[in-house]
Amino acid sequence: MSLAGHLFRRILLIIPMIIGITLVLFIVTHAIPVNPLVVILNEKSLENPEAVRSATEKWGLDKPLPVQYLIYLRNLAQGDMGTSFKTKNPVVDDLRDFLPATIELALGSLLFALILGLPLGILAAVKNGRFVDKVSLVVSLIGASMPPFWSGLMVLFVFYYKLGWLPGPGRIDSRLTGPEHITGLFLVDSVLTSDWVSFWSSLQHLILPSVILGWFTLALITRITRSSLLEVLSLDYIRTARGKGLRERTVVLEHALRNAMIPVITVMGLAFAGLISGAIMTETIFAWPGVGRYEVEASINLDYPAIMGTTLLFAVIYMIFNILVDISYALFDPRIREQ
Amino acid sequence: MKVYRLMLFVMLAALLLGSLSACTPPAAAPAAPAATQAQPAAGETAAPAAPAEDKTLVMAMNMDDAVTFDPAIAGETTNLFVHNTAYDQLVEIKPENLGKIEPKVADSWTFSDDLKTFTFKLHPGIKFASGNELTAEDVRFTYMRIFNVKGPGSTNIEMLESVEVVDPLTVKFTLTASTPQFLAVAANPSLGIEDSKLVKEHGGTDATDADKTDKAKDWLDRNSAGSGPYVMTNWAPKSEIVFEANPNYWRGKPYFDKVIVKHVSDPTTSLQMIQRGDVDMIRSLDVDLVEQAQADPNLQVVIGTSLDQNYLAMTSNPEISEPLSKPTVRKAIAYAIDYDGIIQAILRGYGTRAPSIIPVGLPGVDATQAIQRDVAKSKELLKEAGYENGFEVNLHYGSNPTRETIAAKLKADLAEAGITVNLVPMEQSVYLSEMRAQKLPMAFGGWTPDYLDVTMWTHFFSFPDTSIAMRMWYDSPKTQEIATKIESEMDEAKRVDLTKQWQAQVMEDMPFLMLYQLQTITVLNKDIKGYAFHPVYFFNLVDLSK
Amino acid sequence: MQLETEIHLPVVRPSESPWRRSLHTLTTNRMAMAGLLIIVFWAIVAVAAPLIAPYDPFAQKIVDRLQGPSAAHLFGTDELGRDVFSRVVYGARISLPIGLVVVVFAMVIGSAIGASAGYFGGIYDLLIMRLADITLAFPSIVLALAIAAVLGPSLRNALIAMMLVWWPQYSRLARGQVLSVKNNEYVAAAEVVGVPGLRILFRHILPNTFGPILVKAALDAGSVILTIAALSFIGLGAVPPTPEWGAMVSLGRFKFYNWWLTTFPGLAILTVVLGFNFFGDGVRDAFDPRTNTKA
């Protein structure tokens, strides 16, 4: 099958997946032993008959559940994920407000994981089995073992409070109110508006949370770089290159690395999707106004339109990145394309 | 070649992000009109700006509860502070004297003997931040919009029948029942007068179907439409609120040009931020951090007594809990709790305790009358009720760190009297759902006032058709009789006397017992002056200066 | 981190019997053994908790609250005057078994479902795999969060949430394994002889799929423990006064100046997870021929 045809089929498959996902979510969330009115209104208004009637009507709470689900699906088809019980905003609007912060954090983390993970992985492969290899493994595994809600507290205490090297929680200095809103990504917006004060400040604020979150992905990048490079290094053409008397450095960096990057790029896509959903804990500690916090808040308040919306968003991001990864795989690896 | 493909991938990813964020701009748009409106006004006053001096105040505050700032829909706590800062109410209750109603937008007022009509004379010449004149029509619009949107805000004015504009500076309220607390209600920050022209421009309406047709929420979430000392110019949820001084403020331009309220949910972080100079004040600090704050020579710590009650409610329904339905058993529980341990050790002394649900600070409430621990007496009462071998009961509560600690303490205390308590922490909303379904045997909850009048407590805790009394099956004719009297009595002395009677009766029945009333610990940089704690809206931002 | 094993599906061929050699590789891997040592250490702590802990982890002594580490209280005391050391020790009795239960459950049920789907195929396979796809479409922490929120905060519910989230990964893996083994001669031979399907599945096919599944289980144990701690930290897992490490960090962070409240439970989580990750990594090196490139 052609790549385009394959792609089309994959994208088409998202639709039944979304229906399945929403159905599961709808059943799961409506099993909540909570009266939505409690979430929509405040404690003192629960016996106010007018407020109760109006809210019931507005959120369609009096309709039977299957009907509520069909309404949800119909609205979803029009890009409407319903209205949050808590914020009373369309969930889509809320997500649009909170997503950029998460994307910025995920990108920062991915960058950190790559900057540290690629050299570590290469080093580990070249010095296979030796001390450096072991150290790189230990470093990356420690990252994957640290509870981010704990390590976040620790680095804030040391680097912000005690040493004052890096700024504290939040996306930007507390006396700044952020660059003009264009994309919602502070770094991009501040470049677009030449707001260098904001740029510098948000860049510094991005460091600590990116390290904490990115360290989690480090093990993945390091390992895959290492094993992929090892495999390539054992191939014939590398032997030939070596045989020609090329320097090892040239062999590794110029000949082997290129081909070894294919699986790394593949994994990067999935890692990015993972980072977006994995940011929940880091966002909580670093007062980062992202989707993860929105999801936690929604879960704690049992705001089920918001829970459904966020979970669906994460699932769709996952699926899209899976497809992107497949495409990139096909693009990079001709063998697959021919299949 | 491969590098090129890598770039392709990155571009692909960027494209996706771009398409995601491409749908963003509308969110930014609402902020713009406010800015353009504020600027010409700033030009008018032409105050010579002193750019060298930084007149920005940054405050750390936990705003986890903030979900909307539309006065008609908001029903939490943070919005009370915001609405007090950006809007002016008809009357006000100042921190210095919580029993006294003072003029604000209204210079004076009169009411009928049956307490069903209230007429207010407005202060002439008040301008909104937008430059529009504040008139009786704005007052009418505000009340009717809140009433008709039918959100939490409407609960406080359920008794409203009509609002009439007598002349541009006179407005008359007609109520369905006699309401002695109406003036206190009118001081509620969320009943701040809205600029009707501005709100209508942004989709607001006071029509009877406003719950479906009003579209002003989006705009009111990120902007304010009041005449208060500051204008809210942006709200980034879970992040910050930005206030700018209202140059038209009729009581004089406020000291700070700009106030940024940062959302910081972690108390330790907020203390670190003030110590590192990232913020100038912390709205409320955890009791366990007070020592660190006090030890810092650059900080001042101000203690204020809140009216936030934390109570233990026990069901009167024998089907839910046979033992708890007996007043003797409920009293035995009251005697078993180590209140001093809670307040002195866990709250480090930053708390107090009223004898009944009406908090210390209201007229007629005397903290010394509260029950003290007496385990022997508790056991005696249990024996009297036929439970000398104790019993088992579930304690439900909405989970938060302080409650968790105190619940564990309650479990240990009641064990000494022979009562086995099982802790059942829940999400706050599940807790409220279950409580509202009248299912809970024992509930550990809290109650914060929207306005300062004794009915804020006697009403909700007496009548079996409303709120806490209903949820815990409390149905005592004597209590209801006294509560009914309070609701038609305007004479202050008589009200105090009735308050005392109500208190005594509730202590006799013991459907709820008070655990603690928290004190609020505010931390400020040493050079900030003018702070005074207020139990409803925290403090008046306009009072602060350097 | 399970991605790699999904991308390459290693096959353990019955003819080779690599178990012995793999086991040898594992036991000579110093890092894996260090991991195992840490796990064994915590397992002993968990089993012998009542002997090790000097105090009752629930006993409150309000006058001694928030004391720093001392000879009497090695890790200090918490907000109710409970001994933090004893609580950390008892915490091992929660985190370790939970990690184990979730992984074992997910592994057994997940592989059984996946293997049967792969073996029997047809509509059953289709339904099961769609369900697995849907579950896998959610990032695990997100779905666990939603489920835990729905079920209400308790350790048991968090456990259920984790199981519901984790099984499909094993199903996929097992299904893939079964499909690749199914057409082997010896299976065909068994079918010809008339051995019943289920028996073929359990006696002949499943044992040959264990390698990669075990590798995955070893790698997963750490993340399961971490996720449970995270759920408790948010308030959707263990409820007080349970001495669960994540919950302890959660309460302690509000009193960060009493550093011992967060440091010790945090270190406990870190070391346990590190132990599992070290060990899991060694298991992968030893049993997954694909990454075993050291020869």
Describe it.
The complex is a heterotrimer of chains A (about 350), B (about 550) and C (about 300). With about 350 residues, chain A is mainly alpha-helical. The model of chain A has no long low-confidence stretch (mean pLDDT about 85). Chain A has helices spanning about 5-30, 35-40, 50-60, 65-75, 90-125, 130-145, 150-160, 185-190, 195-235, 235-245, 250-280, 280-285, 290-300, 305-330, 335-339. By secondary structure, chain B is α+β, with helices and mostly antiparallel strands. Chain B contains 19 helices and 17 strands. In chain B, the strands form three sheets. In chain B, strands 1, 8, 9, 10, 11, 12, 13, 14, 15, 16 and 17 form an eleven-stranded mixed sheet that branches. Chain B has a four-stranded antiparallel sheet with strand order 4-5-7-6, covered by helices on one side. Chain B is globular, with a radius of gyration of 26 Å. The N and C termini of chain B lie far apart (about 65 Å). Chain C has about 300 residues and is an all-alpha fold. Chain C has helices at about 5, 20-30, 30-45, 50, 85-120, 120-135, 140-150, 155-180, 185-195, 195-205, 210-235, 245-250, 260-285. Chain C is elongated and about 75 Å long. At the A-C interface, helix 1, helix 6, helix 7, helix 9 and helix 11 of A face helix 1, helix 6, helix 7, helix 11 and helix 12 of C.
Compact summary:
Chain A has 339 residues and is an all-alpha fold. Chain A has helices spanning 3-29, 36-40, 49-58, 65-77, 91-126, 131-145, 148-162, 186-192, 196-233, 236-243, 248-278, 280-285, 291-301, 304-332, 334-338.
List the helices and strands and how they pair.
The complex is a heterotrimer of chains A (339), B (546) and C (295).
Chain A: H1 3-29, H2 36-40, H3 49-58, H4 65-77, H5 91-126, H6 131-145, H7 148-162, H8 186-192, H9 196-233, H10 236-243, H11 248-278, H12 280-285, H13 291-301, H14 304-332, H15 334-338
Helix pairs in contact in A: 1-14, 5-6, 5-9, 5-11, 6-9, 7-9, 8-9, 9-11, 11-14, 13-14
Chain B: H1 2-21, H2 31-45, E1 56-61, H3 78-86, E2 91-92, E3 102-103, E4 106-111, E5 117-122, H4 136-149, E6 160-167, E7 170-175, H5 182-186, H6 196-201, H7 210-213, H8 217-222, E8 230-236, E9 240-245, E10 258-263, H9 267-275, E11 281-282, H10 290-295, E12 299-314, H11 327-336, H12 339-346, E13 351-352, H13 375-384, E14 392-398, H14 401-416, E15 420-426, H15 428-436, E16 442-447, H16 455-458, H17 467-471, H18 477-486, H19 492-509, E17 512-525
Parallel strand pairs in B: 1-10, 1-11, 14-15, 14-16
Antiparallel strand pairs in B: 2-3, 4-5, 5-7, 6-7, 8-9, 9-10, 11-17, 12-16, 12-17, 13-17
Chain C: H1 3-7, H2 19-28, H3 30-47, H4 49-52, H5 84-120, H6 122-137, H7 140-151, H8 155-182, H9 185-193, H10 197-205, H11 210-234, H12 245-252, H13 260-287
Helix pairs in contact in C: 2-13, 3-5, 3-13, 5-6, 5-8, 5-11, 5-13, 6-8, 7-8, 8-11, 9-10, 11-12, 11-13, 12-13
